[in-house]
Design a protein that fits this description.
The complex is a heterodimer.
Chain A: E1 2-10, E2 23-29, E3 51-55, E4 64-69, E5 85-91, E6 93-96
Antiparallel strand pairs in A: 1-2, 1-4, 2-3, 4-5
Chain B: E1 2-11, E2 14-15, E3 23-29, E4 41-45, E5 54-58, H1 61-68, E6 78-82
Antiparallel strand pairs in B: 1-3, 1-5, 3-4, 5-6
Classes of the chains: A mainly beta, B mainly beta.
């Protein structure tokens, strides 16, 4: 799982049947130098590319979420679904103290 | 499997049901000389690794799905073990 902050949302009008009615978040992932401490995400975007994450938990703008990438993102679906990033947790508080 | 150093943890109330009751640890992948490699990842932790300890992470989902006992869980990265320090700090 990786952490990122929600910076927007995406709506699709034509999709494959498995993705109809899905909710998509635009997420800027955190990097080592741009990481949240406490309850507020750091201002601005990180250097990593922004990605679109499938969301079923209802994260809003400005929330910090933990998203899972890869094959495991498509596990919670009964029908085969072509997604590779899913929102696994909406983060409340981050306690991050990197070792210098 | 990845060698990583635990650098924090996080709390999340609203999450996938299979994560209920699991600890989330922020782990920074490191090389053998203890230099950080890449960005921190968040792992679920069944064994209670402490802060700044070196841990072994499994990045395969099948092991994590067995641990959370949910065949459709999106769990992926999990702490498998705590690595011993090559030169532990001196105890005064």
């Amino acid at each position: 799982m990786r952490l990122g902050t929600v910076i927007g949302r995406v709506t699709l009008n034509i999709t494959v049947p498995a993705l109809r009615g899905a909710r998509w978040l635009l997420v800027s992932p955190f990097t080592r130098g741009h990481f949240q401490r406490g309850t507020q995400a750091p201002a601005g975007l990180s250097k990593d590319p922004t990605l679109v994450v499938y969301d079923s938990l209802g994260a809003g703008l400005g929330d910090t979420i933990g998203f899972i990438e890869g094959r495991e993102a498509a596990m919670p679906f009964s029908v085969p679904t072509p997604i590779d990033a899913i929102n696994g947790a909406i983060v409340d508080n981050v306690f991050y103290t990197p070792k210098s | 499997m990845m060698l990583a150093r635990v650098e924090g943890n996080l709390t999340a109330t609203c999450k996938h049901p299979s994560f209920n009751g699991w600890r989330f640890l922020i782990c920074q992948p490191v090389d053998l000389a203890d230099h950080p490699e890449g960005n921190p990842v968040v792992a679920i932790d069944p064994i209670g690794a402490g802060l700044h300890e070196r841990v072994i992470l499994s990045t395969d989902g099948s092991a994590a799905r067995l641990a959370v006992n949910d065949p459709i869980s999106p769990a992926r990265i999990m702490v498998m073990g705590i690595a011993d320090e090559p030169n532990p700090p001196e105890v005064p």
